[in-house]
């Protein structure tokens, strides 16, 4: 991109914002490179705007380019910016690059925070890599205290009941507040270990805020269904309905995914009616279509397909 008259810094900022909102992230980076070749100074705000667009558009591969800009122009990211760049590197499974950024943060005198380590830990756990626990050890060596998110990951990926108890006790002894996500991790971990009654008992904890109860009940429905306990999952679903609550959209989709019997069609359609957001509703329709094709309900599958098509076209 060439300009006959050099724009002001404010004009560049507005142009970068426009590119980012238009999903033209690479073009925004090209503009940054052009600024760097002139007499104007780059600002952290410009790069944070681009970084946000990279996250929104899932263009993780561009994180190396933006990090290079930080390094080449002696711009000092703050801890949150480092965390976001580390997280993007992890999403590409570039754990080496993520650790390099973590080390660079120290060289730039940016104090590492738990969120940076959490991003790497979560990535390792998602890949079923035991190195996730080594991240915890590294935090101890670097004198970085775990936060609620750290324990949420540690508990959520436990595959033994004794480990769940161990980390939960550590959490309580540390004085860290038990958050909604930690309760969710307890539910998921106990269900994954086959301790379904203990997963249900998590909901009896007096520390659960009333406003989080419906979301946690939905998490229980999802975990029970995903671990083969459909009868219990449906019972909990009915309890939610009878208490005037609604199943969270992701739990609805999870429940739909686990319905396989011929007699489940009516329930599948009932669950679909609970999805009001268009994105979730389309995803639910796709599950209904898949179910109908498997069960040879081709006329209904055809009908749902055209409803989806009309919905997308109208949008």
UniProtKB/TrEMBL annotation:
Sequence ranges assigned to domain PROP1-like PPR in this UniProt record: 11-153
Superkingdom of this protein's organism: Eukaryota
A Pfam family that the UniProt record links to this protein: PPR_long
Keyword Transcription regulation tagged: no
Annotated keywords: Repeat
PANTHER family the UniProt entry points to: OS02G0132600 PROTEIN
Protein name: PROP1-like PPR domain-containing protein
Organism: Rubroshorea leprosula
């Amino acid at each position: 991109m060439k300009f006959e008259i050099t724009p002001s810094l404010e004009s560049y900022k507005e142009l970068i914002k426009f590119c980012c909102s238009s999903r033209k992230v690479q073009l925004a980076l090209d503009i940054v490179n052009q600024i760097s070749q002139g007499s104007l100074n780059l600002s952290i705000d410009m790069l944070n705007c681009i970084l946000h667009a990279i996250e929104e558009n899932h263009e993780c591969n561009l994180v190396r380019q933006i990090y290079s800009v930080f390094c080449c122009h002696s711009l000092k990211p703050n801890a949150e910016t480092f965390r976001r760049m580390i997280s993007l590197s992890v999403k590409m499974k570039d754990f080496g690059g993520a650790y390099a950024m973590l080390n660079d943060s120290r060289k730039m005198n940016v104090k590492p925070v738990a969120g940076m380590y959490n991003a790497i830990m979560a990535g390792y756990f998602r890949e079923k890599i035991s190195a996730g626990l080594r991240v915890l050890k590294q935090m101890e060596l670097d004198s970085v205290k775990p936060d609620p998110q750290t324990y949420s990951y540690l508990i959520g990926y436990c595959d033994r009941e004794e480990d769940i108890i161990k980390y939960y006790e550590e959490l309580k002894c540390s004085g860290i507040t038990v958050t909604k996500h930690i309760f969710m991790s307890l539910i998921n971990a106990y269900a994954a270990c086959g301790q379904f009654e203990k997963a249900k008992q998590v909901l009896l904890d007096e520390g659960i805020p009333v406003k989080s109860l419906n979301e946690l009940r939905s998490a229980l429905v999802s975990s029970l269904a995903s671990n083969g306990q459909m009868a219990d999952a449906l019972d909990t679903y009915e309890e939610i309905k009878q208490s005037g609550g609604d199943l969270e959209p992701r739990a609805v989709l999870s429940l739909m995914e686990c319905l396989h019997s011929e007699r489940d069609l009516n329930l599948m359609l009932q669950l679909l009616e609970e999805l009001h957001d268009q994105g979730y509703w389309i995803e639910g329709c796709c599950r209904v279509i898949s179910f109908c094709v498997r069960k040879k309900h081709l006329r209904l599958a055809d009908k749902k397909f055209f409803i989806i098509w009309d919905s997308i076209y109208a949008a």
